[in-house]
Amino acid sequence: MGESNPSPVMDEPMKSIPENSYAIYQVKAGSEYRLLRFSSLAQLQKDVLRFRKRMHAETAALDELAFADEAHVMERLRRDGFTVISSDHPQRVRVCDESMRTSDFCLGFGDRCCWVEGCDTRALDTLVRFDSYDRVYIGQIPDSSRNQPDRFLDDLFLRFNTDYPGDYTGRSMSVSDIVVLNLNGKLTSYYVEPVGFKEIPDFLPPENHLKNAEMAIEDDYDMIDGIINNGEKKSVREQMGEYRNMIEAYVHAVPKTANKDRSDLEH
């Protein structure tokens, strides 16, 4: 059995990879290609740590500064070497590094001024995202290999570098590719490292058919909890209050005086 170049099935990975079959995923051409292609997991972790430290260092550097408005915050971040990208969130400024990873500075607003009150780096927690990949092949796992997954992975690497199946149109298997095995109904994902493979537990998106149904008809995504239409949509004030509580565990909070004199503002 072979299948070349199908589109990824985001919500039903079990059905997209039949039992006792394997699937090969390769990085899409796009913004994350340069980030992921040929990078080991250790290198990805190192890059994330560097970016996270940079975010927290910038937050500390702006600790006592107030700005006339959000535009002046963006100007300062650009001056400090960050690339600012568009974001629809009214209290965040999104930045990216040279590898196109993104993270947010969180803003506080007072009378005639605003400031950087912290940073939210949770987006850096996921090293490898499913939506950055295309599935390029599906094949069967031979009966003789079902009890030897490590050896089977090595065999796959050799085959997809020397003796491709006739219907395979992907690249030669190399670092950053991902192989998913469905052995007796259990899905396991492996990242191709410079030497060998390393299991990554959170590559495939979880199956949640009830959530999918809810999102199709629920009027408030914050109410996605397994009960259809269980309440009115929350007000903006309520949502912002919950948002502030939510980020407390993730941001480096910086107290500010809301009524700073305009002469103290960063321009």
Describe the structure.
This protein is an alpha+beta fold and 267 residues long. It folds into 2 domains: 3-32 and 129-199, no CATH class; 42-126 and 247-262, no CATH class. 28% of the residues lie in helices and 23% in strands. It contains 7 helices and 12 strands. The chain has helices at residues 13-16, 33-36, 41-61, 70-79, 149-162, 209-217, 236-247; strands at 3-4, 21-27, 66-67, 83-85, 92-96, 102-110, 113-120, 133-140, 178-183, 186-192, 197-199, 265-266. The strands form 3 sheets. It has a 6-stranded antiparallel beta sheet with strand order 1-8-2-9-10-11, covered by helices on one side. A hairpin with a 6-residue loop joins strand 4 (83-85) and strand 5 (92-96). The radius of gyration is 23 Å and the shape is elongated. It starts with a strand and ends with a strand. The model is unreliable at 3-12, 208-228, 248-255 and 258-263 (pLDDT under 50).
Please give the count of helices: 7
Strand content: 15-25%
| Average pLDDT figure | 79
End-to-end separation: 63 Å
The strands making up the biggest β-sheet line up spatially as 1-8-2-9-10-11
Uncertain runs with pLDDT below 50, 5 residues or more? 3-12, 208-228, 248-255, 258-263
Which structural class matches the secondary elements?
alpha+beta
Give the SSE string: EHEHHEHEEEEEHEEEHHE
Describe the sheet with the most strands. Answer: 6 strands, antiparallel
Q: How many strand units?
A: 12
Which helices and strands occur, and which strands form pairs?
Elements: E1 3-4, H1 13-16, E2 21-27, H2 33-36, H3 41-61, E3 66-67, H4 70-79, E4 83-85, E5 92-96, E6 102-110, E7 113-120, E8 133-140, H5 149-162, E9 178-183, E10 186-192, E11 197-199, H6 209-217, H7 236-247, E12 265-266
Parallel strand pairs: 3-12
Antiparallel strand pairs: 1-8, 2-8, 2-9, 4-5, 5-6, 6-7, 9-10, 10-11
